[in-house]
Design goal:
The chain is α+β, with helices and mostly antiparallel strands. It has helices spanning 3-8, 36-52, 84-96, 120-123, 133-142, 146-155, 159-168, 180-188, 200-208, 212-223, 232-244, 250-261, 319-339, and strands spanning 55-62, 68-71, 77-78, 105-107, 130-132, 229-230, 282-287, 290-298, 305-313.
Length: 349
């Protein structure tokens, strides 16, 4: 094997049966790894990863053929707000079971209003507001609102229930452990008092009591914390199964992808340099040196769909540089699967 490819752990695999995806092992691609387009893709991903700084992880699968691309795909990365995708899956699972409904109205308490992400705490800054589960789902995935996320995480059964659902689906390398308010507190380096004392003013005071030095130390510790992490490979497995429709009922899967398609954050990431009309339901995550984007890219001319996850951690580069790196990686993979279709096989029957 070419040493560059071995070092990069860049793997291309043949198609999988659409039935029993979780149990069906992949088979090695019959095309030699010395294939020139494959080598070029590897070099291009390597170049783009250097733009991001830090550590980059990539996993992508062409859903219709099962061919895969991987770069540090088995390494753990903090999901940040990308963990809202598995939360949505568990929430919709409970909806399908009849345990909650999308039209169920939820009254927000003062302790439900949390900082970070979206605009809910700015638009609705008083307790007593009532929103539907459907409204909260939109806020969580479209504008990445953290208040909506923590309410929905509670309705989904809590972090343990979300992780248990992932395990039941055969997705092992994904952990959901904390509400966003706890995740942010650990990242910023302050300790939360009992929930009965939570207010937006309190969160502001707690953050202002930290120093740049203490926040940097807390962020460094946060990036090696195994909680609320996943591998790019695990995230892509989840995305593929959402698209295939084998973990949610059709109407739930369509709803989830429709809401993700209207995501308003991270337009410069996966979608950054794709053709403007490209359909990409996706979800971003951002926390200081951490920047992610995960989603499903629709290729033109009926060329199929690509489930993709790109994670960056431990980077001191500016956010625009990291976003540009994600955009270049996404475009490279888009072009590869669009212009390098699977080689035809000879049927000797």
């Amino acid at each position: 094997m070419n040493p560059l490819l071995r070092i990069l752990s860049l793997v291309l695999l043949l198609s999988l049966s659409t039935a029993g995806f979780a149990q069906t092992p992949a088979k090695p691609e019959t095309t030699p790894v010395t294939d020139v387009p494959f080598q070029r893709l590897g070099r291009e991903i390597t170049r783009a990863a250097k733009l991001a700084g830090g550590t980059v992880g990539v996993s992508a699968i062409h859903i219709e053929s099962g061919r895969r691309v991987a770069f540090n795909s088995s390494e753990r990365f903090p999901m940040a707000s990308a963990y809202k995708v598995p939360i949505a899956v568990q929430l919709l699972t409970r909806v399908e079971r009849g345990e909650i409904t999308l039209d169920q109205m939820i009254e927000l308490k003062a302790s439900d209003l949390h900082p970070g992400g979206g605009t809910l705490t700015h638009l609705i800054n008083k307790p007593g507001v009532v929103l539907s589960v459907r409204n909260l789902l939109e806020l969580m995935l479209v504008i990445s609102d953290n208040s909506a996320t923590d309410v929905l995480l509670r309705l989904a059964g809590g972090p343990e229930a979300v992780t248990a659902r992932m395990r039941a689906l055969g997705i092992q390398d994904m952990e959901i452990n904390r509400p966003t308010i706890n995740l942010i507190a650990d990242w910023a380096g302050y300790t939360l008092p009992p929930e009965t004392e939570w207010t937006l003013e309190l969160f502001k005071k707690l953050y202002e009591a930290t120093t740049p030095e203490s926040r940097k130390a807390a962020a460094s510790k946060f990036e090696v914390d195994p909680r609320d992490t996943c591998t790019p490979e695990a995230m892509v497995m989840l995305l593929e199964r959402i698209y295939r429709g084998d973990l949610l009922k059709r109407e739930s899967g369509v709803l989830l992808l429709d809401v993700m398609q209207r995501c308003k954050t991270g337009e410069a990431r996966l979608k950054g340099i794709l053709p403007p009309e490209t359909v990409v339901p996706h979800k971003t995550g951002t926390m200081d040196g951490i920047i992610n984007d995960v989603g499903i890219i629709t290729l033109p001319d009926d060329a199929g769909h690509v489930a993709i996850a790109v994670f960056v951690k431990s980077s001191e580069k500016g956010i625009s540089e990291r976003e540009r790196a994600i955009a270049h990686i996404a475009r490279s993979i888009y072009d590869f699967f669009l212009f390098q279709p699977p080689a035809p096989t000879l049927d000797k029957r």
